[in-house]
Amino acid sequence: MAAATSASEDPIVEALRQYTSCDVADALVKLGVPDGGFLPGITMWSPQRQDGDTKIVGPAYTVVYAPHDDPRSKWPSHYIDAVPAGSVVFVTSTDRTPSNALYGGLMSTRAKASGAVGSVIDGRFRDLQEQRELGYPVFARDVGTAPPGPVLKVVAVNNEPIRGLCSVEIAPGDYVLGDVNGVVVLPRALAEKALPLMEKQVEADSKMAVEIAKGMSFAEASKKFR
Question: Looking at the Swiss-Prot or TrEMBL record, what is one Pfam family this protein matches (predicted)?
């Protein structure tokens, strides 16, 4: 369940902004999450392709597409009109091999106007140049051309934990951080435990980097600072 505090007021979101996706993954590994919350195969496409200092941090607003023969009813309204400010739009599909794009430029236009910080598409998206002209962050598996409507329908919006094409479970309100390294999901229940671990790890790594640059071996620096 998403927290009552808005993303713009959430102290955890503010704290996470100083860290990278790798920092989050390191902390989650220490908390017993072997994959570190990493979403494999999803990379940055906009505003640049795997370049620059773009970072998105916010609670997940989850959207699930499914084939038309799925027994669930089509969602009665368009999900993009209910995106909360400060959130990360996360779109996935139960179809394991969708060739149709799940997301397009008009969705980003509306999301940006609503104050969303970026979108993560667990599948294909389209209108790449339009996305870049908006300066809106999009992370996805790949690009496509055809819209989802002919083969897929939205069946769930921000109301249940999902897995989609990724093996990582994502619940509405879980924290999503995306940067040039990739996208990770930090479960809300682990956030307060993970943050101190990130702080400690970053401090240790900074000290290691200084000493390694001076000639100390990695093994020695690791033993001394970690």
Answer: RraA-like
